[in-house]
Amino acid sequence: MLTRLDLRFFKCFELLRLPLAPLTLLTGLNASGKSSVLQALVLLHQTMREHEWTTRLALNGAGVRLGTMPDVVDEVFGRRSFEIALMDDEDTCGWTFEGDRRDMSMAVQQVSVSGRTIEAPQSLRYLLPSDAESATPAAALARRLRDLTYITAERVGPQEAYALEDPHVVNVVGPRGEHAMSVLHWGRDEPVSADLALPGAPASRFRQVEQRMRTLFPGCTLELQQAPRANAVTLGLRTSDDTGFHLPAHTGFGLTQCLPIVIAALSASRGDILLVENPEIHLHPAGQVLMGQFMADVARAGMQVLVETHSDHVLNGIRRAIKAGRLAADQTVIHFFRPRSDDQPQVVSPAMDDSGNIDSWPEGFFDQFDKDASYFAGWGEDGD
User: Fold this and answer.
1) How many structural domains are present in the chain?
2) pTM exceeds 0.85, yes or no
3) What does the pLDDT average to over 29-43?
4) Where are the alpha helices (DSSP H) in the chain?
5) SS3 69
6) Which of 247, 270, 293 is the last residue of a domain?
7) N or C: which end of the chain has fewer CB within 10 A?
8) Are 289 and 251 members of one domain?
C-alpha cells in the first residue's frame, strides 16, 4: 500500500508530504491542488503503461493531458524541474524530472530506488533501472502504478452502444469510463472479492455490479448484449420490474455516472489502486452517502482508494461506515486543501475517531451549510 506521496515544485506545491491510507479523501477549495495530487500519480501511471522503455515522463497521454513543462512546474519557486517520491510499506521510489519550456515530456534527471540513486539514467523500464529485479518491492510498486484505475469527473454520458475492446489490451474502465461496458462484458462471469460480494446474488462480476447498483438505485436491473456483427455492446437499464429495459439516455445521468465506478471497484483485486474524482456527480444526497459507504467497503476489501470530492454527503457516508465498524478509523485519512498562503498551511488533515467524529473543522471545510443556516437565522449578513 502507498503510505506517502511527496511532491516538490509540482504545479501549486513548493513542497508537499502527503500521508496516504487505504482510503484517502481529498477535499478543499477550488484550484487548491486536490486534482494535482491525483495527476502526479497518473503521470507515472500513463508513462509506465504507454511507454514501457523510456527515460522521459509523458505529460500527455490517455490519462491526463497537462501540456508542456511550464504547465507542471511550480511557477513561483520551481525552475525547470519537479520531483515525485512515493513510499509504500516496503520501499521508496523517487524521481526528478527536467525539461525545457516547449517540452511535452520531461527527462528523468534522477531516479532513486531503495537508497540507490542514478543520475541521468540511460535505460529505464517502467521508470525504474532496467536491471531491477521483477520480484523487488520497487518493481511491485511500479506494477501497481502501471495497473491503477483512474476515473475522472468528466465521465462519458449515456450511449446507444459501447465499443468492445480487446480484453488483453484494455482491462480497466478508462479515465472517462469509456471501457466500462467492455470490462463488464468480458469479465461478467469472473468472481468478485468475497469481501465485496453482496448477498442475494451470485458472486459473478455482472450480477454483483447489478446488485451493488440496486443499493444506489432501488430496482435497478442491467441488460448487456453484444450487437450482431459488431464489436460493440448495448446496455439496457430499468429501475422497476414492472417496466421493460430502456436505453441509458432514458434512465437519468446518475446511473451511467456511477456505473463505471462500481464496475472498476468490483473488477479490482487486493492491492490495486483506484483514483476517483467526484463520485457524487448526478447523485441525490442519499446516494452520495451510499457512495461514501461503498468507497469505505472497497478500501476494507484491500484495494487502495483515493477520492477527490466536494460532497459532505460522501464524507458523512465514510464517517457512518467507520462508526458502523465497516472500516477502521486508522485506515482513513482526510486532507483539506487551501490555496497557497504565507499565513496558513496549504493542507490540513483533520483526524477521525472510531465513532466517525472529526477533531477539527477548519474554515471552509464543509461548513457552508452552517454558514447558510446562520444567515437565514438572522445571525449576520455573512453568516458569522
Assistant:
1) 2
2) yes
3) 94
4) 34-50, 69-72, 137-146, 180-186, 205-216, 253-267, 285-300, 312-323, 368-376
5) helix
6) 270
7) C
8) no
**Cα gap 310→364, rounded to integer Å:** 11
The beta strand positions in the chain, using DSSP E, are: 2-10, 13-19, 23-28, 56-58, 81-88, 92-98, 105-113, 116-119, 124-125, 128-129, 149-151, 162-163, 221-226, 232-238, 273-277, 304-308, 332-337, 347-348
DSSP state of 197: P
Contact (CB, 8 A) for 85 and 69: no
Indicate whether 7 and 97 sit together in one domain: yes
Per the CB < 8 A criterion, the answer to whether 100 and 35 are in contact is no
Distance CA 19, CA 41 (A): 14
Q: Residue 293 — pLDDT band, cuts 50, 70, 90? A: very high
Place of cell 414492472: 242
Same domain (yes/no): 2, 13: yes
Of 236, 270, 304, the position where a domain reaches its end is 270
> Mean pLDDT score of the chain, rounded to an integer?
93
In terms of domains, do 189 and 139 share one? no
- The amino acid present at 335, given as its one-letter code, is H
Mark whether 7 and 135 lie in a shared domain: yes
